[in-house]
Amino acid sequence: MEDEVKISARGVQVYYEDKQAIKNVDVKIQDKTVTAFIGPSGCGKSTFLRCLNRMNDTISICRVEGEILLEGQNIYHPDVDPVQLRAKVGMVFQKPNPFPKSIYENVAYGPRIHGLFESKSDLDEIVEMVLRRAALWEEVKDRLSEPGTGLSGGQQQRLCIARAIATRPEVLLMDEPCSALDPIATAQIEELIADLKENFCVVIVTHSMQQAARVSNKTAFFHLGDLVEYGETEELFVRPTDPRTESYISGKIG
Amino acid sequence: MAHETGSLSEATALSRKRRAAEKRYRLYGLVAISIGLLMLVILLTTIITKGVTAFQQTYITLDIELLESKLDKKGNRDINDIKKVSTFGYAPLTKNSFEKLISANNLNTALSPKKASKILSKSAASELRNFVINDTSVIGRTISFEFLTNSWIDGYLKGRINRGDIQNSKNVSPEQLDLVDELVKLGIVEKKFNLSFLLGSDASDMRPEAAGFGVSMVGSFYMMLVVLLLSLPVGVAASIYLEEFAPRNWITDIIEVNISNLAAVPSIVFGILGLAVFINFMHLPQSAPFVGGMVLTLMTLPTIIISTRASLKSVPPSIRDAALGVGASKMQTVFHHVLPLAAPGILTGTIIGLAQALGETAPLLLIGMIGYIASNMPSTLLEGLASPNSAMPAQIYEWAKRSDPAFYERAWGGIIILLIFLVTMNTLAVILRRRFERRW
Known about the structure:
The structure holds two protein chains of two kinds.
Chain A: E1 5-16, E2 19-30, E3 34-38, H1 45-51, E4 62-70, E5 73-74, H2 82-88, E6 89-92, H3 103-114, H4 120-133, H5 137-140, H6 153-165, E7 171-175, H7 183-196, E8 201-205, H8 209-215, E9 218-223, E10 226-232, H9 233-238, H10 243-249
Parallel strand pairs in A: 3-8, 3-9, 6-7, 7-8
Antiparallel strand pairs in A: 1-2, 1-4, 4-5, 9-10
Chain B: H1 13-51, E1 56-65, H2 68-71, H3 79-84, H4 87-104, H5 113-116, H6 124-134, E2 142-148, H7 151-158, H8 174-186, E3 189-193, H9 195-199, H10 214-245, H11 250-263, H12 267-281, H13 289-313, H14 317-325, H15 330-358, H16 362-366, H17 381-386, H18 392-401, H19 405-436
Antiparallel strand pairs in B: 1-2, 1-3
Helix pairs in contact in B: 1-19, 4-6, 10-13, 10-15, 11-13, 12-13, 13-15, 14-15, 15-19, 18-19
């Protein structure tokens, strides 16, 4: 189980016009684990994360080379529909961004556009299940018709996680999901992440090394577009092999 | 080393200068705003004082004996025979009516009944004729009928014309004014609310008292309908494409620059374009509201596109990310999330664009929506769109250029109505914006 590879990237290079943001990255990400990407600002960790569900496609000046295999299938193959891909690879963003609609509609939107339910009661069930999964049900069950934007920051972020898992993805990408939250909300999200890895392949970008140490099984350290070091989280934090990793985790760079 | 500033409460030369400068600038601002407000007040008072009289009109109530011998000589009430009697046939009836009026009330006047009847509007006979043709059963009876007086009598009662002005006038004599004074005392001549100004059509140069604004309001309504139905879908579709789908390259850059330029093109240019393309080349009818609407659409499109794009831009990218992130297509993202959020802004822009189009005159002059062109309300949608008509601003322009001051009064009255429409539309836009505005 531990060794099952979910995503494997080979020779990935990303350019913004002429500027290279990611340099020749090879990485294998395992299923049912939490993989953290760490590194100083501008190191390319978010860019690489956004390659995994082709969100970079929306940036017209961004160009991706190399291949990224999701269960052996290259997601950058011309036949792949990025829309279908994103249903399989869900994403949670840095700033909580619920739709300005009801809590119910926020969660139901994904299943609606992907036709994942038969009847209204089916959809109700999905919404409840997903909100329970995101540890939000107890807090919102009596006000599902109220706007999602009226929740607190932490609740909004959990709503976004619920929205992401409602499309039944296999991979969940999180781009600094706690950076806009207070410590209590952060702790709740981290607890949730630990829980989610039972079912999903979770990839999280974080600027907090403590967070990476707390939640992840594996950690990848990026620096100036290079994947410097990748390994078991404990291993990487205790015995970094590359001097750059050591400088970063000891606070000398970044 | 302590800084030599002295006490905090003591003004130094520098701080005094700064304070004086600030005071001066505030004063400049206040003066500028006061001048602006003063001008606005002057403008509005002028418009209202000059225009409000158009909403009243002088009427005279006469008892008219509708003689069968004059109107239906054969006595068989055949509508075709009755229609053969022209307005000349009706003139004696009003003359007789004046004769009776003068003798019944012992009015002391040197005027002959015929001269006296000249205080009526020139449209009096045709009004009476239309009334009889609509209901032939009145023939042979004596009815009480309300006539318009002519515009000089109206002007006299409204204070626009005084006795000194008419010394050499062929249109009205002092004796007629004396008679009117008597009739006013008797309550036979009086000023009433001018409903026909709001509902009626324009009238020829000799009958300003009969001229109304209603038909041109209907003309404007149909044009606005055309503008709305054409410019909203086209404008919104173009904006969505340019903002959300179009690649960023030199072609879209050129389009973008030119849309901004078009918004600043003088409206008369659109008028001449409309004349050349719609009328001379495509041979669409002149003076038709749907052609006018098409010309105004050309003019309104850039406004709508610019405001729609601005409101699409103001939807935060995080909403697009969120939708794309759950696997919505570009199209679903736009139509499910971005467009609903941009809708209030689009609506506001559209209303303001329409308000601009409503007040536009120049392009309408070039496609012939000017002059005395419509005498009847259009009865069907098709007629409303295709039969020649004017529009509110064009009608105002038309009245303002006629020589008779009675038309001038109506031009101001028309401006009041136009302003009411514009203020209403702009208020609606503000309310919609406030009501549906979202903050993130």
